[in-house]
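Supplementary Methods S3. Input chains for the assembly prediction are listed below.
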Amino acid sequence: MIKHLLSINQLSDRDILRILDTAESFREVGTRVIKKVPALRGRTVVNLFFENSTRTRISFELAAKRLSADVINFSTSGSSVSKGESLKDTALTLQAMGADAIVIRHASSGAPHTLSRWVSASVLNAGDGTHEHPTQALLDLFTIREHIPSFEGLRIAIVGDVRHSRVARSLTFAMRIMGGEVTLVGPPTLIPPEAAGWGAEVSHDLDAVLPKLDVCYMLRVQRERQRQQYFPSVREYSRLFGLTRSRVRGLPEHALIMHPGPMNRGVEIASDVADLPRAVISDQVTNGIAVRMSLLYLVLGGGRASSSEEDSERSEPEVA
Amino acid sequence: MPERTIFRGIRLVDPASCHDGLTDVLVEDEGVSAVGDAVVAPAGTEVVDAGGLVMAPGLVDLHAHLREPGFEHKETVETGSRAAAAGGYTAICAMPNTEPVTDNLAVIAEVRNLADKAGLCDVHPAGAITRNLEGSSLTDIGEMAQAGVRLFTDDHRCVQSSRVMRLALEYAKAFDVVIAQHAQDDGLTEGWQMHEGYYSALLGLTGAPAEAEEVIVARDVALARLTGGRLHITHVSAAGTVDLMQQARERGLRVSSDVTPHHLTLCDQDLVHYDTNLRVNPPLRSEEHRDALRKGLVGGTLDAIATDHAPHALEDKEQEFDQAPPGTTGLETALAVILTELVEPGLLDLLRAIELLSSRPARILRLEEQGGPILPGRAANLTVFDPDAEWTVGERPFASMAVNSAFGGRRLKGRVLHTMLRGRFTVRDGEPVW
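Predicted structure tokens for the full assembly:
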């Protein structure tokens, strides 16, 4: 299995299925009264968050704790980073303290790549700038698979600020690897023309795309983009690209509605649409824990160091 | 007793005299005293057996950052001069983005003084076009020009105001100096990290489109027409710029341009590992642009190869990609990169390569003593290299203080063995003389 998870593009379809299948076997742990297995006992996982992201950090923290790993949360405010420590020195410090895995969230695209050159620990990208957010894409795939058994030919639209979205990149790459058909929808200013090179269709007409979809995936639109004039007004954006109740009627019965959160209710998604049964947004959050357990387990080699009686070659997790 | 050195049977490649052939070259004191077959050397002349070696006029760089005054933790005039000598250069033009900015005679004098003290390379400080590189009011161009400054630029900043650029081109005409532009429209490049294209979209890095360069070049060519001033576009990176320069040339405008070894050989897809040493300004562009630059160079549209030597401290570059300042060193690799990537595959012949690296830039800067011809009575500003010697970039310590080379780890062909500044070795047998 892989040593680092930096980009979805480093994974094959078999890798992705293995991650999802492993997550499947971990999901049950979260339903127990005692939500813990000893798979990563004695291993140290550091959550290194240079950007605030309570949701992703908590999800990784719970994932690591349910695997019995020791978890250190290192956020930048109030730490040595706010005193001007460089990423390199932070990395070397964590290395010296014996971190086995480092989960990094950073505002700079490529920061996980850079970090992985400096440490021997496994590096997991928890979102880097406008580059990628691979664990989000994997939990999205996991959530889709709960409702639609095969990705082959599955039709998904990713709607919104594709240009600045790490979620859109990772999800597009992941769906393409799995044989899905991706349409990127948004105003031309928010979709790089080169996205055609990702094997995705591009559309600027949401209503025309809706009827053929299996999944309608809404991206968060930051108001900052309006100030930068990528679109003239929030009002116009919502009218053209917001998922309203009336637009939902254009979707096939079985189609899922997804959103990586946090949502701007009333901007890219109407509040009542977000609360529909087919909007599986809470499931995405729940599944995030199992998928991240799976990833931590797989990159750390299945807890080899923690338990000598375990077969180190075994790929399926010990969940009994 | 005068110091004499004779290079026996050397391949002299001298574009200024259109010479490419085996000959003997005798250097006495500061100058070349004889060139020809079977030159008779007086007793006591040191003989350099130069079989298989090439002698060329010392290389001339239109664009180097020496960082002093102000950023001596990155490079100094002395270490930059060492890097130049090690790379075969005998004259370089130092960029004015120092601290304080080289926008007045006092700083010009300081840089010259430091360069004289180092004594390894002629350093010609460029003056800023505008005070403090702010793009609004012209510096005392006349005073600096009368003191010998040949080139003015706000490099790494582009003069945005059409009015200021027009006035600079117009005013500078009185002094026969060149106005060099780093062509980059601010509005199209805000927050840029790399070339805008497939790879910027893939890597999630903010792109600067090639058109950001083209729109400024188009404007400046129009202003060169309006004013009759001498315009130089430095480190051309976009295919469209090549076309614009060609059109300007055809219309008889006084324009010139240079291109860097890294823009001629690397491209945006090399950034997939977020290597900060490949973060340069202007950014490495796509293969199509790179190929257009090569064509423009081979076809004679682009005039010179300049290094844009931009040294940075290790801690500057060992950062997140968007935090790391742009720039690569270049003085110590330029010749070998051009030999390996353009001459060896047959794109350029050696005479043309030397013209682009030495004679043409010397002519743009109006440096009488530089760029050849290598003839009796001329100053001995020379470089001698082994075109077949292979080496790996970084295997030997750099003479520059900085190690941020975009070519680190590359295997290159062509190694400088001797550099001579006015008859004195600055590099001898591949070893520094300092």
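Chain A has two domains: 8-132+287-299, 134-283. Chain A touches chain B through 23 residues (CB under 8 Å).
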